[in-house]
Amino acid sequence: MPSIVGAIPPPPGITPDFVNPPSIQHVVLIVNSILPLVSLLFVALRLYTTGFILRSVGVDDYMIALAWVSSQSFCICITRYGLGHHLWDVPFSTFNPNFLKFAVICLVFYGISIMLAKVSILVLFLRYLPQRYKRAIHAIIASVVMYSLISSFHWVFDCQPLEKFWDLNISRGSCIDWSKFHIFSGVMNTTTDIIILLLPIFMLRKVQLYKWERVGLILAMMTGGFVLIISIIRLKTTVDMAPNRDITWEYVHNGIWWMIEMHIAIVCACLPVGRAFLRKHFPYLVGYTFDTSGHGVQNS
């Protein structure tokens, strides 16, 4: 019988274990079980609120539902190809080409999910913006869609032939060094988070509302940018992981932050409509009640 060869040589003094290797696969499974349930709850509350309370389901609601569906496809399938094990404990025949091929698929769904969540927030902003801001919002939406699609499908252009990106047995052809592009993409992601966080302040600063009403509305709409901190952490872990060859192990730590970013983005996109939900079912929290038509009436 031919001997099993690991995907990479082990560090000095380490003996590969192909039978019962150290594993952190359970971390991926736990995180990928809890986060989708949390974000699904908020998506369901959003769709309930817009569909049955506000009776105004918009394209942004469909986007956030699709963002959740896309998030479910991230990192589910590659645990069977070595994720959570040290790369030297993963047989080369198991790792190649399966791990990188499915990683590409997961990254596509990650990019689409983040894109849809952000665009959903920006489309919601369009409902409340004065006309003079709408061109700027459309430009931001176009930028988010453009860099998200390029980031999600960059692997199409990385290598010639295409299969060289995930099949290490292919020695012919060449691949482009896209490390600087990945950093640029991460910076763009963080920049749009900052814009989404600060935009409501400029958008609503001249709206005629009572002081605390204005503060409450701004805070509700700023929730879409709370994912900024997670985005920065995810960018740092991605940069730190780049020189590490033990990708099946390190990808777990990085992938967890990617999953957190996706689901927090979905939750944040759902929070702005939470005020209407509270007015309907918990009016004492916001000082409003609802009449039979679903319109808010201030309590005396």
Automatic annotation (TrEMBL):
The chain crosses the membrane at residues 27-49, 61-82, 102-125, 137-157, 181-203, 215-235, 255-278. Its main location: membrane. Belongs to the SAT4 family. It holds the Pfam family Fung_rhodopsin. GO terms for cellular component: membrane. It is found in: Membrane. It comes from Periconia macrospinosa. Residues 45-279 form the Rhodopsin domain. Keywords: Membrane, Transmembrane, Transmembrane helix. This is Rhodopsin domain-containing protein. It is a multi-pass membrane protein. PANTHER family: INTEGRAL MEMBRANE PROTEIN, PTH11-LIKE INTEGRAL MEMBRANE PROTEIN (AFU_ORTHOLOGUE AFUA_5G11245). InterPro entries: Rhodopsin_dom_fungi (IPR049326), SAT4-like (IPR052337).
